[in-house]
């Protein structure tokens, strides 16, 4: 039996990136005298030690932890949480992406390329024309609802999702168009509003619709979130918007942690499996939803909390619809049978 050699890893590329990043960071804290700022924001570095591991080992960006820590725990504006998510993922998710590419891990390239092109258009449109008009409370709710539904999906479908092997490739052009629409719509909405989420959308399509192995779906989701985060930061700076006050100080403390933490998540999860980490993170996603409803109970009222719960159920219904569509496309279950026409019934009776 012939054995195919494994693709040669090029980890020196990742080490070169790390050296460049830490050189810039040391120049900032030592050369520019910002060490006291970094030390003063050590709680964010501690939080992102967990967040960066999740970023590299799950389809949820580091902002999934950074956003609720800043907004719910530190009670800072949701728009600051969004900008911090973009900024910190530009380091952590980029570091994890370079590590993934250097290790030659399998990627769903057609969908990824389509999503990158879609995000290139959708994310700036969302930053300019959608995000500025979303109230702070609604930014919190959008984040809370989407991640709660994603967490619940994994709590009751994890065995099935983790059981996929390989990937259903319908057609490269079809995959590219799917990625294009996913990147455009999620870049313009959830990513532009919360700073995270495009990775979750692409991942969901891969595991539910394409029946992709987690070893393919998660690295692909990491790459699209890294790309969108860098794009988001670039758009904000080039347009003159800049980032919210307080983002840089928290970034300065957390960046050296996530540069190593996210790739560490990629490495460790390959040894221990993805299910335990996904279960923990899924539980945290549901927990932050409950926390958000409790923290904002006075503003939301009973009606607002019910609306949020209904929104979670609606997202779950969307996930299930995607799953059923994927089953039909690969022939796992036949489409619903249509009732026979009246003519067909009469013909059958005559034959009898």
TrEMBL record:
Keyword terms, alphabetized: Cell membrane, Membrane, Transmembrane, Transmembrane helix
InterPro entries tied to this protein: TM_pro_TauE-like (IPR002781)
Coiled-coil residue windows: none
Main location: membrane
The protein's name in its UniProt record: Probable membrane transporter protein
Annotated region (Disordered), positions in chain: 332-352
Species this chain originates from: Bowmanella yangjiangensis
Membrane-protein topology: Multi-pass membrane protein
Family per record: Belongs to the 4-toluene sulfonate uptake permease (TSUP) (TC 2.A.102) family.
PANTHER family named in the record: MEMBRANE TRANSPORTER PROTEIN
One Pfam family, short name: TauE
Localization, UniProt: Cell membrane; Membrane
Transmembrane segments: 12-30, 50-74, 86-102, 108-130, 137-158, 178-209, 216-239, 251-270, 277-294, 300-319
């Amino acid at each position: 039996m012939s054995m195919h050699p494994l693709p040669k890893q090029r980890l020196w590329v990742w080490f070169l990136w790390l050296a460049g990043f830490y050189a810039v960071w040391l120049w900032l804290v030592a050369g520019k005298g910002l060490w006291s700022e970094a030390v003063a924001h050590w709680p964010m570095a501690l939080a992102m030690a967990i967040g960066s591991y999740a970023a590299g080992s799950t389809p949820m960006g580091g902002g999934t932890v950074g956003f609720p820590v800043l907004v719910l725990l530190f009670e800072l504006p949701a728009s600051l949480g969004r900008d911090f998510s973009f900024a910190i993922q530009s380091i952590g998710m980029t570091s994890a992406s370079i590590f993934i590419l250097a290790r030659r891990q399998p990627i769903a390239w057609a969908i990824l390329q389509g999503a990158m092109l879609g995000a290139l258009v959708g994310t700036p449109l969302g930053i300019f024309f959608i995000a500025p008009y979303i109230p702070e409370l609604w930014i919190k709710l959008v984040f809370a609802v989407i991640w709660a539904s994603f967490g619940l999906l994994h709590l009751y479908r994890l065995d099935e999702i983790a059981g996929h092997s390989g990937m259903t490739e319908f057609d490269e052009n079809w995959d590219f168009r799917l990625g294009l629409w996913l990147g455009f719509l999620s870049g313009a909405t959830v990513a532009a509003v919360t700073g995270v989420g495009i990775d979750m959308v692409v991942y969901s399509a891969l595991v539910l619709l394409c029946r992709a192995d987690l070893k393919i779906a998660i690295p692909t989701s990491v790459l699209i979130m890294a790309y969108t985060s860098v794009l988001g930061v670039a758009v904000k700076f080039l347009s003159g918007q800049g980032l919210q006050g307080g983002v840089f100080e928290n970034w300065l403390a957390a960046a050296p942690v996530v540069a190593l933490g996210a790739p560490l998540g990629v490495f460790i999860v390959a040894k221990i499996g993805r299910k335990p980490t996904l279960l923990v993170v899924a539980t945290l996603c549901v927990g932050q939803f409950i926390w958000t409803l409790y923290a904002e109970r006075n503003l939301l009222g009973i009606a607002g909390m019910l609306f949020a719960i209904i929104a979670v159920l609606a997202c779950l219904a969307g996930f299930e619809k995607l799953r059923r569509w994927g089953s039909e496309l690969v022939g796992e279950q036949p489409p619903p049978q249509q009732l026979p026409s009246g003519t067909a019934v009469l013909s059958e009776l005559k034959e009898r």
